[in-house]
Amino acid sequence: MPQANVTMNVRHPNSAVSIIDIAGQVTAFAENVLMDAYTEASNETTRAVILNFSELEYMNSSGIGLLVTLLIRAQRQKQQLLAYGLNDHYRQIFDLTRLDEAIALYSSEAEALAAVG
Question: What radius of gyration, in Å, describes the C-alpha atoms of the chain?
Fold first, then answer.
């Protein structure tokens, strides 16, 4: 079975916010890595999870599906899901799929952190 060609690092800038740094390819093979990273990022004090796509190499429709699954999990936990670092191509995909209406997109980590409500 093919392996995920992605790494995810979780950071906690404060007790209410976690950041998942995504590097590599977000495809169906990234499911376990993404869900494990979300589990590590999420606890009882987490109010927002920020996805850092600065090092994203590739994402396909299965990867978009994983983000929808992640969004549902975050909403169940009453957490905001935000993102930054998407290039123009992936911003357009988020727009076309209307995913940008559920996952707020920002240009930088500082903007995303400032937007956490």
Answer: 13
Counting beta carbons within 10 angstroms of the beta carbon of residue 24, is it exposed (0 to 12), middle (13 to 18) or buried (19 or more)?
Answer: middle
Look at the chain and report how many structural domains it folds into: 1
Each of the 117 residues of the chain gets a pLDDT tens digit; together they read 567 799 999 999 999 999 999 999 999 999 999 999 999 999 999 999 999 999 999 999 999 999 999 999 999 999 999 999 999 999 999 999 999 999 999 999 999 999 996
Q: Is residue 20 a contact partner of residue 37, using CB atoms and an 8 Å limit?
A: yes
Contact in structure between 41 and 80 (CB atoms under 8 Å): no
CATH number at residue 19: 3.30.750.24
Long-range contacts of 106-115 (CB under 8 A, 24+ apart): 106/82, 108/84, 109/19, 109/50, 109/52, 109/84, 109/85, 111/84, 112/50, 112/82, 112/83, 112/84, 113/13, 113/17, 113/50, 115/82
